[in-house]
Sequence to fold (312 residues):
Amino acid sequence: MEHHMARMYTIGEASELLGMPASTIRFYEKNGLIPNMQRTGSGIRLFDDEDLEWMRFVEHFKASGMPIKEIRTFIELYQQGDSTIEERRRIINNRRDAVERQIAELELARDFIKYKCWFYDVAAEAGTCDVPREMPPEKMPEEMRRIKERCGISSF
Amino acid sequence: MEHHMARMYTIGEASELLGMPASTIRFYEKNGLIPNMQRTGSGIRLFDDEDLEWMRFVEHFKASGMPIKEIRTFIELYQQGDSTIEERRRIINNRRDAVERQIAELELARDFIKYKCWFYDVAAEAGTCDVPREMPPEKMPEEMRRIKERCGISSF
DNA sequence: ATACGACTTAAACCATGGTTTAAGTCAAGA
DNA sequence: TCTTGACTTAAACCATGGTTTAAGTCGTAT
Fold:
């Protein structure tokens, strides 16, 4: 059975593996997003596989729109152990709600944009915006009628 | 038949009607998001209903994550008339793709967060994170197993 | 007449999330 | 030994999207 030596990585290697500039990694560490970072005697950061896993984990939080301060708070609570479970749970539940609001808002915006896509497809075909602009609802595709109604799209 | 006088609004009234600080409205105008703004002789902005409609329209673009510069570009093209239809169509199609990527990314993040919600529900119940952390996949809810697999969630 | 509140401007300020720069240290190879 | 490249730091810089401030102008009500 092969024994994987616990390799350590410099910031350049970590940057490569994570697909993220080294400056960003330094910025994250400075802001408390990478706890317990090891260093060589001369001060060079050493990342192990666990650090890389940790950073991928942080990336998930970032993808959810969580601000850096809140991620740091969460990490600090995590380091304090099981006594902070309830507080971490609140943070995560709030984040879930925030993400769901964001998604709902983006879905509305997507519909608006889809209407505009249709509008410009028709306009490009006709050579003028007057054609889609003045099209009576009953000649529009069902979906566009629905969106126009819901988003209160005016004549622009 | 009642004849609606074409009322004009001050920035304070527009702010109230749009639910947006007056400073933001000034900022938008300065950045070319509100074309052809009327003024009184003494320089006070006058908004008509069409301006308000226009601003609601701009809000839809903003909700889609479109940067202010790109909205301004779009508006400038709009003002040039039908000769810019193709260019506007490209902008809108790019925006649709961008919004769809954003939604997909957020949906992934939402799944990660949902997993964490479940994790902390179990941890809170048990009083320790060890319970969800060491739970074998076959004891997890089907959805959580799937998410953990897909998001490559480690032991944190 | 004058005080008040709402408006005007340019410019400074702020928060977020990084990126870039300048100056220096270190280890390894020629 | 000397050069080279990768690393270090603090601090400055940048972009985005506004908000706040300071100083001043209007129109109206008392």
